[in-house]
Design goal:
Creatine Amidinohydrolase; 24% strand; 5-stranded antiparallel β-sheet; alpha+beta
Length: 265
C-alpha cells in the first residue's frame, strides 16, 4: 500500500449506509430546488427551502458556518449557489435569475454523524448551445469517473480520463479546486483531482473497497484560471469571465466498482 492510500479512512458497510441516508437528503434537496430554478426566482429563496428540507429530517446543513482563511465571515448559507462565471462558493442572494443563466447548486448534509455532498448545474430557461454543451460535458466527466472506478486502479488513471473528456469537449478543467474524501467529516483524505500531471504524483492513491469519495468536476468554458469574486472572500469566479459548470456525487468504492451514495436510492 502506498503512503497516500494508507491515510484514507476505510468505511464499514454500516457507515456507508449512514452516508447513503445523508445522500438521500442531499438528492431530495437538489431535485426540489431544480424545480424552482426559473427566471425571476432568487437563490435566497432556494437556500431557504433547502434549509427547511434539511432541518425537517433532523439533518444539519454541512456548509453553514464553514470557515475559510481568505473569507471575512463564515459561510452564511445552507447551499452554495454559483451563477454563470462563479465556479464555487456562491452566496445565495436576492438577485433574480435571468433566462439563459446557469446556476450551480452544491448541497451538503450531515445526518446522524455522517455526510453527503453533491452538486448539479441547472440551466435557467433556455441556455445557448455552447452553454448546454458545457453542462453536458461536465456531467459526462463525472459519469465517466464513476464508471471507471474499480479496486486496484490508481486515481490518476481516472483523473486522466476525466481531463481528456473535458478537454476533448473544448473546455478547461478548473485545477485550484478538487474533490475529496468524505465520511464523518466533509473533507477527509484524499484529495481527488479532475486532471493529472506530474505535480499530482506524490498524492496519487490506489482505489480500495470502502473508500468514500466526493468526485466533483468543475469546468470552465474558457480558460481555467480563477480568482476571488468579491470582498467576502467566498465566491470563486473564472478570471476571464467565462461560465463554469459543476457536478458532484459522493461515491463508495466497492469490490466491483462504484456505488453512488447521492443518487437518491
Amino acid at each position: 500500500m502506498d503512503a497516500a492510500t494508507a491515510r484514507i479512512v476505510i468505511k464499514s458497510p454500516r457507515e456507508i449506509e449512514l452516508m447513503r441516508a445523508a445522500g438521500r437528503v442531499v438528492r431530495r434537496v437538489l431535485d426540489e430546488l431544480g424545480t424552482m430554478v426559473r427566471p425571476g426566482a432568487t437563490t435566497a429563496e432556494l437556500n431557504a427551502r433547502a434549509e427547511e428540507l434539511i432541518r425537517a429530517v433532523g439533518g444539519t446543513p454541512l456548509f453553514h458556518g464553514v470557515r475559510n482563511p481568505q473569507a471575512r465571515m463564515p459561510f452564511p448559507a445552507a447551499i452554495c449557489a454559483s451563477i454563470n462565471d462563479q465556479v464555487v462558493h456562491g452566496i445565495p442572494n436576492d438577485r433574480p435569475l435571468k433566462n439563459g443563466d446557469i446556476l450551480s447548486i452544491d448541497c451538503g448534509v450531515r445526518l446522524r454523524g455522517y455526510c453527503g455532498d453533491a452538486a448539479e448545474t441547472f440551466p435557467v430557461g433556455q441556455p445557448g448551445p455552447r452553454t448546454a454543451r458545457l453542462l453536458e460535458v461536465t456531467r459526462a466527466a463525472l459519469e465517466l469517473a464513476i464508471a471507471e472506478i474499480r479496486p486496484g486502479l490508481h486515481w490518476s488513471r481516472v483523473a486522466r480520463r476525466m481531463q481528456e473528456c473535458i478537454e476533448d469537449g473544448g473546455f478547461s478543467v478548473i485545477r485550484e479546486f478538487v474533490g475529496h474524501g468524505i465520511g464523518q467529516e466533509m473533507h477527509e483524505e484524499p484529495k481527488v483531482p479532475n486532471y493529472y500531471d506530474r505535480s499530482q504524483r506524490p498524492a496519487d492513491f490506489e482505489l480500495r473497497p470502502g473508500m468514500t469519495l466526493a468526485i466533483e468536476p468543475m469546468v470552465a468554458a474558457g480558460r481555467p484560471e480563477v480568482r476571488l469574486g468579491d470582498a467576502t472572500g467566498w465566491p470563486v469566479v473564472t478570471r476571464d469571465g467565462s461560465w463554469a459548470a459543476h457536478y458532484e456525487h459522493s461515491v463508495a468504492v466497492t469490490e466491483t466498482g462504484a456505488d453512488v451514495l447521492t443518487d437518491g436510492r
